[in-house]
Amino acid sequence: MSAPTLDPPVAPPPAAARNRLRWFAENPLVTVCTAVVLLVLVGSFALPLPYDPEGVDATAVLQPPSATHLMGTDQNGSDVFSRVVAAGRTDLTLAIVATLVATTAGVVAGLLASKRNRVAGAVMNVLDLVQSFPLLLFSVILVSLAGNNLGAVVAAIVVIGFPSITRLVRSEALVVRELRYVEVAESIGVSSARTTFRHVLPNVAGVITAQFGIMLGRSLMIIATLAFIGVGVTAPTPSWGAMVRAGANVIGNGVWWVAVFPGLAVVLVMFCVNLAADGVQRSLGRQR
Length: 288
Fold this sequence. Notes:
elongated
């Protein structure tokens, strides 16, 4: 006679789902920030560009915002609005790809490390060592060693973000593995892989979602900072950080728009991404 398997439902009950939606309704700022993030994502990739973001026009250098150029032009006569949108495509693509890779690797490693053994302990000690390095300095060193290109930026973000996601998933998975029905499932012979992906992973999915948003905001910060100091995304590819750096050279002459608009873009997106992720995390806490 085959041993029975325990497959309790993992989806939140309708009442919990309604409570989560009610929480967002009671926190309009989080809802607005979530909508802003979605609009920026759609706009960055779907909005048509009025001018070539890498084009040069010597007759339109440093023109202030007007009906012709909504956000003015920069030192090369390039349309700032077109470059801000194009920079969003570059920075958001890099951030999303790097965050997806870091999250996927961290989830897999965290689930595997949630099985208590010596190997898991050694791996966590190595990750602690990686996390002990200063974030910005570590990313600059990694990009410089790997080559000043977009792939190196993604690799640096993955290496930086991977340990924190691994540690979070492992800690949450250890709690789930202590639940009664998980222990019973293991005691009656349910395979470790089935227990992990059928019982453990669905119960930590919400925390992973919230951490993905936090990691996305951190990735944007790293990309913008690296570009600002001239590492990572380089000219003529538009990047919010590089645009702020270029604008800083002329802002003292009253040419404020070259630096202000890309600076506002990166600050707004980072603020809204972090607030939306915090909203998801708090709604999950309320559900529990």
